[in-house]
Amino acid sequence: MNTSIHPTPLPSAQEAELARVSGRNLSVVLSSRAETQQFDFKDSKGETRSVELPTSVVRLMVDVLAEIGQGNAVSIIPIHAELTTQEAADLLNVSRPYFVQLLEKKDIPFRKVNTHRRVRYEDVMAYKNRIDSERRKALDELAALSQEMGLE
Q1: Which NCBIfam families does the entry mention (predicted)?
Q2: pTM, two decimal places
Q3: Where are the chain's structural domains?
């Protein structure tokens, strides 16, 4: 499945405030042990419609509302989605040519569709997590060395 990532505009101040309030109200149901949650909505004709959602979806909605409430734009990408090299490079905040070098060095698995490379979202995120972990470890070692040498 190929999913394209579209730029998401930043929420307005009104949207952010509504998201904060809605997130707080919605988070109340997360304390329930129920596997599903039922919500009643009014449609455009004023009729009440009931919707049953898995609690995991409600938890995701609360997370999304929290991000929007902080003024952040949010995109949802299926874990098994395949990305173009440009989409993946954008996720890592690197240039496309640099990302292609990572693929050619076999740092990240990919497959070819004709002449185009495709990478799985989960593989890109696994690489990001691995690199972030290595960076944190190096920073911790530098901080320890700095303390040993009294350079603080």
Answers
A1: excise
A2: 0.61
A3: 13-69, 82-148
Under a CB-based contact definition with an 8 Å cutoff, are residues 103 and 135 in contact?
Answer: no
Question: What would you measure as the largest C-alpha separation in the chain, in angstroms?
Answer: 72
Where does the chain have alpha helices with state H? 13-27, 55-69, 85-92, 96-104, 121-148
C-alpha span between 35 and 3 (Å, rounded): 29
pLDDT in tens, the chain (152 residues): 445 455 678 899 999 999 999 999 998 888 888 899 999 999 999 999 999 999 999 999 999 999 999 999 888 888 788 999 999 999 899 999 999 999 999 999 999 999 999 999 999 999 999 999 999 999 999 998 888 887 76
Radius of gyration of the chain (CA): 21
The arrangement of secondary structure in 82-148, i.e. its CATH architecture, is Orthogonal Bundle (1.10)
Kindly state the tokens that stand for 143.
């901080």
Query: Taking the alpha carbons of 135, 141, 145, 148 in that order, is the dihedral positive or negative?
Result: positive
